Amino acid sequence: MLTKLAEITEVAKHRPKEKFTSLAHLINVELLRICHNEMDGKKAVGIDKVTKEAYSENLEDNLADLIARMKRQAYHPQPVRRVHIPKPGSDRWAYYSRSKYGNFVTKRKTSAKKYKASLLLVKQWIQENRHHPKSLIMETLERKLRGYYQYYGVMENRYKLKEFYEEVKKHLFKNLNRRSQKRSYTWDKFILFIKKYPLPKPKVSVSLIEIRPDIGSIL
């Protein structure tokens, strides 16, 4: 198992553009035990207040439960304590969180400026092309949304992806009703239209598991 993860680490190191979907099937109790033992238990605890020492009291059962939840895709990362740290020489703040054992982890999410700019471009495109055939509008919108999800689809950003999707859908509804002087859709009819021409829903394209060269990978 560790050999497979080491091979993946080498691939990630030498081919940084390589895409990994899910590595969960490579994780077992042995690897999680190694990760747990290497964590620093002296740091401040995360939002759940569980210390490394407390987790160790029932370690084997905890690890077995974690593996079982991962296999049935029921594992969800716990909330983390968010920390904003000022960047030297800038009025901007870095976005960090404390992990379960107090480690600082850099988080990734769409900046407000980039989010607004991306949404504005899509809205403008919908407005400028609302008189085109509906099938063509939906086909192009599908590509635009998939491209956005691919670029910004990291786990920490899933709520922004959902917000982006909903905003695009509302703007589409608004502009389809402006194709003529007569209102074309009620919201219920619009939902039926979306079922016929479905827009891709938000999708996280980056795994929860991050490659770490010293041990292969870590949750």
Give a structural overview:
There is one protein chain. Helix content is 48%, strand content 10%. The protein has 219 residues and is mainly α. A three-stranded antiparallel β-sheet has the order 1-2-3, with no helix packed on it. Strands 4-5 form a two-stranded antiparallel ribbon. The longest helix is centred in the middle third of the chain and has 19 residues, at 134-152. The protein starts with a helix and ends with a strand. Mean pLDDT is 77; it is low at 207-219.
Average pLDDT metric? 77
For the largest beta-sheet, the strand count, sense and barrel status come to: 3 strands, antiparallel
- Overall tally of structural domains: 2
pLDDT under 50 segments (min length 5)? 207-219
Q: What is the count of β-strands?
A: 5
How large a portion of the residues is in β-strands, by DSSP E? 5-15%
Q: Briefly note the structural class of the backbone.
A: mainly alpha
Estimate the helix proportion, in percent: 40-55%
- For the CA atoms, what is the radius of gyration? 22 Å
Query: What distance separates the N and C termini?
Result: 15 Å
Helix-strand topology string: HHHHEEEHHHHEE
Tally of separate helices: 8
Can you tell me the overall shape? elongated
* Major sheet: arrangement of strands: 1-2-3
Question: Main attributes?
Answer:
single chain, 219 residues, mainly alpha, three-stranded antiparallel beta sheet, two-stranded antiparallel ribbon, 8 helices, 5 strands, elongated, disordered C terminus
